[in-house]
Input
Amino acid sequence: MPEKMRVGWVCAASVISGLGSGAGFLLLAGLPMAGNHVNRSTPQMYQNQNAAPVNPLPHVLILLAVALGAAEPFLYLQKLGLLGGVSGLDGRSALLQDFFLPAGQLSWMLENGRFDGALLKRFVTYIFVDGSFTGTVFTLVFTLALGNIVARAFGTWRFLVLFFVPAVVGAVAYSLIAGAVSHNGALYGGMPGAYGLIGAFTWMMWAGVLRHPMGETSPFALIGFLVAFRVLLAPVFGWHWATTAEWGGFIMGFALSIVLVPGGWASLLRRLRKR
Output
């Protein structure tokens, strides 16, 4: 395996296993935001190596994680017969009816000229309820892992933009593509937003903001890791059109990172010229 690819896979494993603590990453170029000035001439550790083993998460990330996982304890209590539920009966399907985004909804809205709030809200609400407890766990793992790094680098409001805008764009992409192929499924779960954070993290590596101390990290190795991850999980969760929402979120997260960072576009052009 080529060295850059190997380091990229190690990088991906480091982020996920460390829940995004940032330990082991070198911050090579400080982003002009989030209140920290970084000397660009000297590589610095992204996270203080003498800090506590468990670093405090940014408050905005904690609130987002609580919102993404709130449905699970609610459903568990309902299954116990509390909060209006029936003992032994899983209320997930009923809850999904109020949150999920139907495939082809945007095409239907465009054809009928209907853009009322009850329809538009589903392009956001779908992220708060997943189809399974395991799906929620994976969403939280990726959001916490990548979100801890992205939130510290970009700051609070940019972090929220990098999660919610890709989630909406991913939903639009899913609705249009699924409608075009007459797919009758539904979109639910917060992975498209998590992929927006993955896109931002990939931009940080590609722009040279982050590097693993083992060597130069290839962001395309991280993309390869994610593709392999989805393929390996396909027998468990199935391979369906919701993947288009995730990759739509990834592309939007990467593109937004260029826009949200002052001088990001100029930095992109410089890197392209070097190649």
